[in-house]
Amino acid sequence: MNAGLRYELFMWPTEKNGFIGNFDLEPWLPCFTATGGTNELCDNPSPGFLVPSNVSQTGLSVVDGAASATRVAGNKHTLNGQDLNNFAPRIGFAFAATDKLVFRGGYGIFYDRPSAAFINTIFSNYPFLREVEITVPSGNVPIVSAFSGVPTNISLNQWLPFRIVRSSGANGTYQIRDNTPVYVDSRGTPQGSGCNSTTGANCTRGNIAETFEFRAIDRNLRTPYVHQWNFGVQYELFRDLLFEARYVGTKGVNLLIARALNQGFDMNDPNNPDHIYERFNQAYLAAGSPNGPLNAGSTARARGLGRAFGFLNSVTGQIDLNLANANGQVINFEARVPILGFNVPEALLLQSKGYSDYHGGQFSLTKRLSSGLQFNVAYTFSKSLDVMSSDPGSTAGGGKPDVPNVGFIAQGSAYDLDNNRGPSDFDRTHRFSTNFVWEIPTGRSNNAFIKGWSISGFFQAQSGTPFTVFASEPEVQTAAHYTSVTRGAGGLLRLGFGRPNTNCTASQAVSEASANNLNVIDGSCFSSAFGLFGNLGRNTFRGPTQNRFDLSFAKSTKINERMSFELGFDLFNVFNRVNFANPNSDLQDGTDFGTITNSIGGPRVGQFRAKFRF
User: Fold this and answer.
1) Sequence ranges of the domains in the chain
2) Which helix (H) or strand (E) holds 42?
3) Residue 28 exposed, middle or buried by CB count within 10 Å (0-12, 13-18, 19+)
4) pLDDT in tens, 79-107
5) Which residues of 392-408 are buried (b: 16+ CB within 10 A; e: fewer)?
6) What is the CA radius of gyration of the chain?
7) Please, are residues 492 and 266 in contact by the beta-carbon 8 Å criterion?
């Protein structure tokens, strides 16, 4: 038996010049709850931004002015101290019951250094970067003058706070505008009827805002760690032949995940905070109450219903509070958020709230080299579950523009991580492998050509990996979009991923792949979730199985006591099997959805090799 205790300290990353930004979410938590939030708090995130204590001047006045006006943290990493309690006990044992029977087991806690990949993305946070995107008026904006209406000499903090503005008329819609003193659009046209762009009289002030694509880090971040344990038995069946059976388990705690920082509200939810509705009531009043005065009522929701928001949805046949007008225009998803000013799919929060479980039965039969033969046969039956499988640091889209990386952000509701629990992306229920080396007997011949020949091989067969059918960044803009399978898969909330409803079993929805059947997903099995989260779980389906067999032939010739020469021929994927990858499961891909377009591993390949030993 052995026992030990290990201590590991992983310090939080810092930036040499303090050019990183963060957001202190805790004071804004009431904005996410049914009570406690106010428009004064939730419509102005400016006081929540943080810069580290070693922040320095950049030489850019618009940035330095904003950094000087931003709250300074008490350290260089902006988090709430270091995680100092990383004690990791270990214990293991081996007990020989007989000369042939041995029991083994162990348990330990293992800490994992937090990946800096996500943290490396916070260089683009406010106040060190402000993205401006010209989106209106649509079309015909000369590039040479596209930004002429945007002032370049005011501090970035003066763009805040953003505000909601309603366009004129009974069928007006809501826009988010910044706080800059701009009264013309990108073509220099005055904004507003009778607008005097010199004085600002009768003008709509500010640009249509590009909300913050922010990478916030939970100030209470903790070091991820894993419990690992195993118990097994080894039994010598015959001389040089060993059988082993082992149970292995792991449990991940405080694993890093990225979730949506600012997931919006479905306005029809009766549990919403009232300040969300008041945000639109105020914009409606500022627009001159085009549908008449607000209703009498004790809540902002009741006062604005049928006036500022809430009209008949021609698709559902019910009053829909997400509608801005009687024409069925849905209020922009970025306006229905808890904290005004943050993007939804691109404002992320890194937290140590992930978890995982793995349980596996591992069996092997091993023959040590004797009589010119050795082999190992192994089989694993296992299951791995988690809420997010990949390092949340990557921002790549898998080669497709504007398609989120599967590992970049947790799917499903940001407020219910358990809804995202499912098989790990790398889970394989069954895995069988065997390898062998056979030194071909010579019949006691000393002939140099006959001696030294060997054959070796490797075979592996395994279950496919799980996958999810989803829509990448869906968005519902009008009532007509509610019935769309793609837009309806969470499109009211516009997260990075949206899962639809399903009315089929897994075997009905996904058929077995073959050379004659590459279109394996039946799209008719999926239907719209009417803008909200569908009933389809994460990683519900399983991809194609894979197997391969490799073979090698070798001839070793001894030159003298110290030198030998080996010639070999290796054949990979002997039977030239095509191992299919998972199908394209993004509902937004109208061309390849449901189709397998890639394979795993290569075709049959042969290679000659030569090796000189001395």
Assistant:
1) 442-614
2) helix 39-42
3) buried
4) 999 999 999 999 999 999 999 999 999 99
5) bbbbeeeeeeebbbbbb
6) 31
7) yes
